[in-house]
Amino acid sequence: MLQSGTREAVALARDDKLTLIAISALACILQDLLHEGLGHGVTAWLSGAHRITMSTVALQSDIDTRWISANGTLVNLLFGAIFWLLLRNPQRYRPATRYFLILAMAGNLFTGTGYFLFSGVANFGDWAAVIRGLEPHWTWRLALVIVGVASYYASMLIVAAQLQAFRGLNADSKRLRDVSWTPYFTDGILAGVAGLLNPAGFFYVVASALPSTLGANAGLLSLPSMMRGRSGDKTQAGRIDRSVPWILTAGIASLLFIFVLGRGLTWSR
């Protein structure tokens, strides 16, 4: 009886919205740094680039190779797998930390797999550059679309399995909508504002920042309906309380993301 009452209390718990936004912002920033910095940037530097400009929406260098284009998404997929492994024993984490790891996993998996689909359909973006010059070109684009659809759906299933603990015991859990939709809109606003300061111009906001964020993370909007009717996780995640450290860290990181990285950072040798 005590266990049942505890589960009901967890199911009805209200998470702190500001902390949800803060955690969402940090997960978004981390995914972007991994993609543009560790993926494209480090690869370009190791490939012999003499000048690199990194911003929130693009990596520009004086050399261009298929590996530079591909490694942004490959790094995202690698870290998506790492975060998934870290979540193999989720009960050891506090609810806020567990939520951050889930969002970090989701952002990296959705970006990594979403780029296959986006580049195949639009013939633009990282993987369009990877397959440029390969013939017959339409078969490579079709392959990207097929791989993108299959891998993106698989990523949604993986993220849904981890978010089960946040849905509560109600099949139409408002909590699940909060933890799924809050990062979607937070990421879109953050990426859009930072992209406005991009030195390459407004084009990259429309062609890169918003599609790669709103498009790649669209799976978050579908998760509540996707999970409807499924039984809730027996080990419900506790309430995410107001956390000043998370909020302050996200505030500082967001300002740096917008006003420093948003304007672009250049390295030369």
Spell out the key features of this protein.
269 residues; mainly alpha; three-stranded antiparallel beta sheet; globular; 68% helix; single chain; 10 helices; 4% strand; disordered N terminus
Task: Please give a structural write-up.
This protein has 269 residues and is mostly helical. 68% of the residues lie in helices and 4% in strands. The protein contains 10 helices and 3 strands. It has a 3-stranded antiparallel β-sheet, covered by helices on one side. β1 (51-54) and β2 (59-61) form a beta hairpin. α7 packs antiparallel against α9 (218-226). The termini are far apart. Residues 1-6 have low confidence and may be disordered.
* Gross morphology: globular
| Number of H- or I-type helical stretches | 10
Largest sheet: 3 strands, antiparallel
**What structural class results from the helix and strand content?**
mainly alpha
User: Overall pLDDT, averaged?
Assistant: 89
Total E-strand runs: 3
Q: Could you tell me the strand content as a percent range? A: under 5%
What are the secondary-structure elements, in order, as H or E?
A: HHEEHHHHHHHHE
Distance between the termini: 67 Å
Rg of Cα set: 19 Å
Helix percentage:
55-70%
Total domain units = 1
Strands, helices and their partners?
Blueprint: H1 2-11, H2 17-46, E1 51-54, E2 59-61, H3 66-86, H4 95-122, H5 126-130, H6 137-163, H7 174-196, H8 203-215, H9 218-226, H10 244-261, E3 265-268
Antiparallel strand pairs: 1-2, 1-3
